[in-house]
């Protein structure tokens, strides 16, 4: 039973992080594979730099950083420094886990 409670807490943190419109927009940008009708590699499509993610969102860089940190803290987004850039992506396992919440058993 303790595992069930921990799992509920983790899911609650995920949904809490996604309840903010800016964080939801960032997450959606990360999970969008590529332009419809084209073929792309999941590994390439899911990785974006912080600068790329912030384009067109009309939020300050510090606010963008805060939102990405919250998504990372909730286990939704992975982050890795690559030189001067920080790359962000959503692990396929995270998407499967979220999808399983809505699958009927």
TrEMBL record:
Q: Which domain of life is it from?
A: Bacteria
GO MF term list: DNA binding; DNA-binding transcription factor activity
> Sorted alphabetically, which SMART domains does this protein's record hold?
HTH_ARSR
Which terms does the UniProt entry file under GO BP? response to arsenic-containing substance
Q: Does the keyword DNA-binding apply?
A: yes
Its keywords, alphabetically, are:
Arsenical resistance, DNA-binding, Transcription, Transcription regulation
Domain HTH arsR-type, by residue range, is 3-105
Q: One Pfam family this chain carries?
A: HTH_20
Q: What is this protein called?
A: Helix-turn-helix transcriptional regulator
